[in-house]
Amino acid sequence: QLHSDQDKGDGSLKYILSGDGAGDLFIINENTGDIQATKRLDREEKPVYILRAQAINRRTGRPVEPESEFIIKIHDINDNEPMFTKDVYNASIPEMSDVGTFVVQVTATDADDPTYGNSAKVVYSILQGQPYFSVESETGIIKTALLNMDRENREQYQVVIQAKDMGGQMGGLSGTTTVNITLTDVNDNPPRFPQSTYQFRAPESTPLDSPVGRIKANDADVDENAEIEYSITEGDGYDMFGITTDKDTQEGIITVKKALDFESKNLYILKVEATNTHVDPRFLYLGPFKDSATVRIQVEDVDEPPMFSRPAYIMEVKEDVPLNTIIGTVTAQDPDAAKNPVKYSVDRHTDMDRVFNINSGNGSIFTSKPLDRETLLWHNITVIAAEINNPKQSSRVPVFIKVLDVNDNAPEFAMFYETFVCENAKAEQLIQTLSAVDKDDSYNGHQFSFSLAPEAASSSNFTLQDNRDNTAGIFTRKTRYSRHETSTYFLPVVISDNDYPIQSSTETVTIRVCACDHRGKMLSCNAEALIHPTGLSTGALIAILLCIIILLVTVVLFAALRRQRKKEPLIISKEDIRDNIVSYNDEGGGEEDTQAFDIGTLRNPEAIDDNKLRRDIVPETLFMPRRTATARDNTDVRDFINQRLKENDTDPTAPPYDSLATYAYEGNGSVAESLSSLESVTTDGDQDYDYLSDWGPRFKKLADMYGSMDSDKDS
């Protein structure tokens, strides 16, 4: 309440109020000065209000005292409960953690005045989650309270924490929050096989690296803690099988490492071990993190093809062996217990010439055609072995046959020798050096000997000297030679080798006698081919040129005669006139017959071959075809034919004379009547051909011929 010393109680003064909340939260009685609050005040919204009050004269409105200021403070009461910063907390800790392991800290705040009483003093407690977890009352830190909590038993926990003000005393306000705690996995469980023995079956034909079976050890852990590595530790199939891990399913896949053979061994026993790849040392006290199991693999028998004793065969044979000589034997057996008999054959795709054959019973390979090492050194064939009872069961083996050399080829010149000797040559002059080759193979090198044939040794004009190095030289025996007496000498030379049996051949050296200068350079010989082995002589060239000139003159004369030829009609004699009747043996159906012909052709000149020329004279000038306008569809056929007839009468490129153009139209008759001799009288004397002169230029030829005949008769 406000009161002025000037207030005498007569109602002459008036109290007014201004400042924070004046007129809204706070009102003043203008007569008594009492200040009242109109609403419930909240310290958390505004703890202090500053107001100003003044007393004024009601009549004059002037203040009777100076304005005074006063402060209103709101005293706090416990009207706000603690509030957590999150509605839900999420946390995780490793399983098997020690007691007192920190999990998470929760925080709650109180809007009340912390300086006034215990309204804002918060204390934490756990309402749900015991005995697994605990919370510190003052800090809100949650810790583990139970030892060896196992994720495999329980993974999720829900803890409810309460925050209460007034220091937790009675009458305090409280709030709660939920904490979801998850136990994360650690490798505290070793792998365990669900059974101690596994059994699988595998056919002996199982390909390498093919799976035989799968085994799996169970591990209660997850993710990398459950990763397992499998291995074969011992057993009689340690080197026959392998095992790998399927990363997706953590299964052990047993595969074949070596080929299985039922006849050799049909049962394998393995010991397989499963081990964790990520071991936690803290839990080694729980035992070894591995387990083992026994795997029995039964090999099943299948019908297998025959097996050769070797993967490949190499044989040798001399090239001069007689036919049907055995050069070697291949052997194959049925690996099955039945030991079925085997038959052999040669794959003819590898021996197209059928040089070799094989005994189907014992596998002996023998020759069926002569061999020649110089033609083919190696023969690569394939032998097939198949079961007699089941030919589908077959196998193949390559056989490499090497043909050994024998001395069956005589040596021969390394090249064709054709040389010359000068007419002025001196005696003992070297004119040619010879060398030889041999198709046969020599392990110690070839040794050739050269000599003149016996028939030429004494009478020859030349001598032969063996150089003992597989070469020989031809020397002149006399001083001069004459090409007029003998232009060419043929010198037979015998070449022999030193192998067994000795082979020899007689080769011929051609020696021409030529004219040479004083230095021995050849000038000319009787044989031009020696100088120009690939050229033509001068006489031959002149003859070829004369032939070409004569051919050109003939062509020019023929072209000139063609140009000078006069045009002559095909009908030379006026007396040589014949009536040619062309019979088509086809009777038309008249105008009503629309199937016999296409009348559209008559109306469309584009469909007619207009490149026809006269055939009674030699054409001199080709006229360009004249295009005629297409007739209208409603044009009368008679008018159409008359129009075309008129055009052809004046057209110099029309069809040839004395031709019959059939238009497939039967008219009402012709003004000139029929020209056919079939309707004529028996004698020509009764006919009058003067009317032909009135039919235009097209019939002028007929008028001249028949008119001349009448005049001849009259004379």
UniProtKB/TrEMBL annotation:
Cadherins are calcium-dependent cell adhesion proteins. They preferentially interact with themselves in a homophilic manner in connecting cells; cadherins may thus contribute to the sorting of heterogeneous cell types. SUPFAM superfamilies: Cadherin-like (SSF49313). The gene is Cdh6. Keywords: Calcium, Cell adhesion, Cell membrane, Cleavage on pair of basic residues, Glycoprotein, Membrane, Metal-binding, Repeat, Signal, Transmembrane, Transmembrane helix. GO terms for molecular function: beta-catenin binding; cadherin binding; calcium ion binding. It is a single-pass type I membrane protein. Residues 4-84, 85-193, 194-308, 309-413, 413-523 form the Cadherin domain. One of its GO terms (cellular component) is adherens junction. The keyword Iron-sulfur does not apply. This is Cadherin-6. InterPro entries: Cadherin, Cadherin-like_dom, Cadherin-like_sf, Cadherin_CS, Cadherin_Y-type_LIR, Catenin-bd_sf.
